[in-house]
Amino acid sequence: MNDTPLPRRQTYAMKTEKKTEIHSPHSSSHTEVNIRFLTVAGVLNRIRLLLIILIGGLIQVNAPATLLPVTPSMLSGPLIFFASPPITEFAVPIPYGFANNLTDSGWIWPTDNTGLLVVDFGTPVALNRFRVYCTFNGGARGATWVVERSSDNFSWVHEADFAYLQEFGVGVDDSGNPVDGFGGWYEVKFNVGGTADRYWRVRQSGILVSHAPRSGQMEFHGIAEPSPGPTVKSVSPTGNTVRKNAVITVELEDGTVTEVAPATTQLFLNGTAVTPAINKPAGSSVTTVSYNPQGTLPEGSNTVKIVFGDTATPSVVQTNEFSFVVINDLKAALVVNLDFNGVIRPRRRRFFSRVL
Predict the structure, then answer these.
(1) What is this structure's pTM?
(2) pLDDT averaged over the chain?
(3) Is the residue at 337 inside a domain?
(4) Of 64, 98, 205, 270, whose CB has the highest number of CB atoms within 10 Å?
């Protein structure tokens, strides 16, 4: 048997593991050979494919979003919109001080599409979820809102279009259950690539049905880059069903450069200074500030303000606020769930609550 080596040009053209019948120019016999090597083109194609898979996988990874703390001092934009009572400043609950409800109490951005809100997070954040609470439960309203980001509060980059369109049973309550009507939380998710910028804004760009929905609170969710200075990690309580015996707790997290200076910490409840307990375990980066009002929280809306400085010289002082609504204990104990036939049943979806 006379096996003649293949010319190099032909060798590179062969596919891996291909079983080929070769006719030798020096013999009339046919020889069956197995080519067991990777071609140059094949190697390059495989590397190219692997890179595409890896890059695609990285792009599709969307890290879990957390609720980012936003205070009135971080907000800017025109205070021109329909609201009752009239609003003259940014307030808690963010953005204009209206607590979530389903009784048509809230604000509406104008039909001329001048409504917008800018949030200055101070450091770059990768915003990836925005939601707003619709307080009108009786029908469909709708507008298109745009989410944009900027590094300088001047040049803006489009990130997402949000069709804020009310539909029956689409909005959800704080527990994620569908609202029996047209109100509740509506949201948009975006920025799967995790692009971070300091400034983010939401603005109205068009009307879908009648006018923009009447709204209450906004929330911004995302991932904040490590801050050089201390930040607010979490606050509690929150929401509209807080009991009178709730304990107020604020967690402050040290920055990458400076830490919380405990002696600078001040806590205010509804404008009155209170004396909190301050605790930071050894080796921890989190300072916990707590205050127990001993069951004396007043019914209705409550606002907490925390002031704290860092270990820089001079100390950099920050002020943050949050609010919650306390429900009457007696009324809370009498809340039952009725179906449409008036039968008392365990709480479930599409039921309404009535206070007897």
Answers:
(1) 0.55
(2) 80
(3) no
(4) 98
pLDDT of 95 > 50? The answer is yes
The answer to whether residues 168 and 190 belong to one domain is yes
Least confident among 79-93, 197-211, 242-256, 270-284? 79-93
What is the 8-class DSSP label of residue 329? H
Between CA 205 and CA 127 the distance in angstroms is 20
Contact present, 141 and 211 (Cβ < 8 Å):
yes
Closest listed residue to residue 170, CA positions, set 161, 180, 160, 162: 180
Residues 6+ apart with CB under 8 A from 161: 144, 145, 146, 147, 188, 205
One-letter amino acid of 90: F
C-alpha span between 291 and 235 (Å, rounded): 12
Q: Check residue 125 and give left, alpha or beta (phi > 0: left; psi -120 to 50: alpha).
A: beta
- Do the domain assignments include residue 340? no
Same domain for 51 and 32, yes or no, is yes
In a domain, 354, yes or no: no
The residue among 240, 217, 236 whose CA lies nearest residue 335 is 240
Sign of the CA dihedral 179, 349, 94, 241? positive
In a domain, 352, yes or no: no
**Predicted confidence band of residue 227 (pLDDT cuts 50, 70, 90):** confident
- For 150, the domain range is 66-224
pLDDT at residue 3 in the model? 39
Same-domain check for residues 134 and 252: no
C-alpha 198 chain-centroid distance = 15
The CA distance from 137 to 183, in Å, is: 4
In this prediction, residue 48 has a pLDDT band, given cuts at 50, 70 and 90, of low
Q: In what order do the strands lie in the sheet with 260-269?
A: 272-274, 260-269, 300-310, 317-326
